[in-house]
Amino acid sequence: MNDFPEPYETHASNLPAPVTPNPMALAQRTPVGKMVLKPDSQFLALAQAAGLNPASFVLELAAVTSRKPEILKCSEDSVIAFMLDAAKLKLTIGRGIYPVPIKGRLEGWVGYKGAKELACRGGAIRDCWAAVVFDGDSFEMEEVPIPTVTRHAYGPNRGNMAKATGVYATLLYPGGRTRQKYFTREKILSYRNRNPSHTKSDSPWKTSEEEMWLAKAILHTVSDLPHSSPELAHLREMVERDEPSELPPAVEALPKGPSVPGGDEVDADFTIDDDTPEPESMPLEEALALTVRGKNAQPQRLGEMRNSGLEAWRDWARKKLDEDPESEKLQRIALACVVVLAARAAGTIIEPAKAGQEAA
């Protein structure tokens, strides 16, 4: 007689059947689920209409609320808006997009990793990154015709955000060409100060300040890219909705002011004399005399524009240079705007007065 037991596999039928968890049932039991997964929930209707799985977003947000219970005190409509933003961006809540309660409303902040992920979707760029510049760094940057960091070596203050002087983002295009944008400390702090929750101890500006600098640099650089993916298009909408003053500035009213180009659909003409110098150098007189014409507008010399108009034309020309880097006309308009702006900053010439006002 064989006294050994039969192999365990022969007894598998006696084991209980594995239980598959029901994500929706789990989500409905969470505090967030009880708020937004009610039978008449607006979130349920919107998520299902968009073909999304509402339970996954509720569970992601529920995991964060265990660390930030104040989220549950936010209004239901703001919680729904946040989750829809996360769904449209296809970012993980708490890792790619962060929920930040502000005065009873829930806002979404896209972090550095989320910004990089969004920027690279759709193939418009191959990669992107950002770096903070600190006091004492060896840092050099050329401004014309396109801003380019030519040297950056960290100094003794690396990582000390109290000594941070700026941050720059770099976009790498499929062909190997790069584009960079630099933001001063004052500009980054102006972004931070728009949100009153930055002073809270658990704010990302307190816990991960350097990451927030990097994220802001990436976000405000890639938001100008062509809408190569639905997620990037929605990111642009979020930037416009939450930080309207960061959109390209509009030209203030002038007696004969052109309409400033605000997008790729604008067809702008340039009037440039044959003897215009090469892009590497341009006399101030030539820059002041260079004439541009926006769509459905009268031609206007750069010297007649206010600074906001010059900045808009400069940024538009640089953006178009991403598509056509060999365009001599675009290089000249970008350089001419920089030359005039620099001369006004130095006090060599003064900015024209607003329409209907006396010159200063």
Describe the structure.
With 360 residues, the protein is an alpha+beta fold. The protein has 13 helices and ten strands. Strands 3-6-7 form a three-stranded antiparallel beta sheet. A three-stranded antiparallel beta sheet has the order 8-9-10, with no helix packed on it. A two-stranded antiparallel ribbon has the order 1-2. Helix 12 (307-323) packs antiparallel against helix 13.
As laid out across the biggest beta sheet, the strand order is 3-6-7
Rg is 27 Å
Proportion of residues in extended strands:
15-25%
Note poorly predicted spans. 242-280
The run of helices and strands is HHHHHEEHEEEEEHHHHEHEEHH
Q: Report the total helices.
A: 13
Identify the overall geometry: elongated
Number of strands: 10
**How helix-rich are the residues, as a percent range?**
25-40%
How would you state the average pLDDT, rounded? 76
SS-derived structural category: alpha+beta
Distance between the termini: 112 Å
Number of separate structural domains: 3
Largest sheet: 3 strands, antiparallel
